[in-house]
Specification:
alpha/beta, ph1033 like fold, Trna Endonuclease, Chain: A, domain 1, 2 domains, six-stranded mixed β-sheet, five-stranded mixed β-sheet, 11 strands, 24% strand, globular
Length: 312
């Protein structure tokens, strides 16, 4: 068995590795592939990754049961094992089918190309492996993982032992959360992913002094976050607004309250009272608008990069 490292945007890793996709979301042109997917995954979520044509040789070196470690923001956050690959043959028709399927999940790159060389995954585990720890285990001195790569055989023994220990343990079942908390975490993830797509350095649950902010977007070398978001579904609305006020007072951040229509109306009433100074500083965003923008941005982000649009 071999170990490969795969960097990715949080949005893509969450969708196709952590959550998985439904077969109905996939544009499957090859009936043999659909049959294989249904046989392997049944009605469950399909978890997969893919490589561009330029990395075909690396894709060819992947075998079933090899490990893939998914890298994001300085650490590896998921591990998985390869179950099967597609195209099954080198027929141009199958490569083209792989391209159509990839586009239905991840869109296109800045050149309008897709990722036709697919590998389907099983035994996905959430991990927390800093890059520094991987360097320690392998003897590498990586500053980041810039592209899909294989760990050399002579360096792979310790990381294999680390992974085997993880896979000896039964998978951790997700803890049951109230619906509101699940929705809160979903919106936080979407805002985080949007920040990364746009070109900022986002962080979730970012702490400063006694305050914790749901999401912040940094733009180095600026001191303090440029944008600060509070997602409010329950609890003290006033406390959420006070956190935003703190961010504005300290860093002159652009501040956003993200909530439901009813909660946003309540927030407006607060501006008539003790928090009147926030009235012209905080932007109120409906959760529905965040979801719509996230879906739109994910679909057309490659066009923005093609046109060279950058955050200001």
């Amino acid at each position: 068995m071999k170990v490969f490292l795969a960097p990715g945007l949080f949005k893509n890793i969450k969708r196709s590795i952590a959550d998985g996709v439904n077969v109905n979301e996939l544009n499957i042109k090859d009936s043999s592939l659909k049959e294989r997917i249904l046989k392997f995954y049944g009605a469950g979520p399909i978890k997969l990754w893919a490589l561009k044509e330029s990395l075909r040789d690396r894709w060819t070196s992947i075998d079933n049961e090899d490990y893939i470690l998914f890298y994001h923001a300085g650490k590896f956050i998921y591990a998985a094992r390869v179950s099967f690959k597609y195209p099954f043959t080198e027929e141009s028709k199958q490569v083209e089918a792989g391209s159509y399927l990839a586009e239905s999940i991840w869109g296109r790159d800045v050149d309008g190309k897709t990722w036709p060389y697919l590998f389907f995954l099983e035994d996905v585990r959430e991990i927390d492996l800093p890059l520094s720890k991987l360097n320690e285990l392998t003897g590498y001195n990586l500053k980041a993982v810039a592209g899909f790569m294989k760990i050399r055989k002579e360096k792979a023994q310790s990381i294999m032992e680390y992974l085997q220990q993880i896979y000896l343990k039964p998978p951790i079942k997700p803890t049951s959360k109230p619906l509101e908390l699940l929705q809160h975490d979903e919106i936080v993830d979407a805002i985080y992913a949007l920040g990364e797509l746009i070109g900022y350095k986002p962080e979730k649950r970012w702490r400063h002094e006694r305050y914790e902010f749901d999401v912040v977007w940094h733009k180095p070398p600026r001191i303090g976050p440029k944008y600060v978001f509070e997602v409010h579904l329950r609890g003290s609305l006033e406390a959420a607004l006070l956190r935003l006020k703190h961010a504005y007072d300290l860093w002159e951040s652009q501040i956003f309250l993200v909530s439901t229509e009813d909660q946003l109306k309540e927030a407006q009433s607060k501006f008539l009272g003790e928090l009147h100074e926030l009235k012209d500083k905080v932007t109120l965003l409906n959760i529905k608008n965040i979801k719509e923008f996230y879906d739109f941005k994910g679909k057309f982000e490659w066009l923005e990069r093609k046109f060279g649009l950058k955050p200001t």
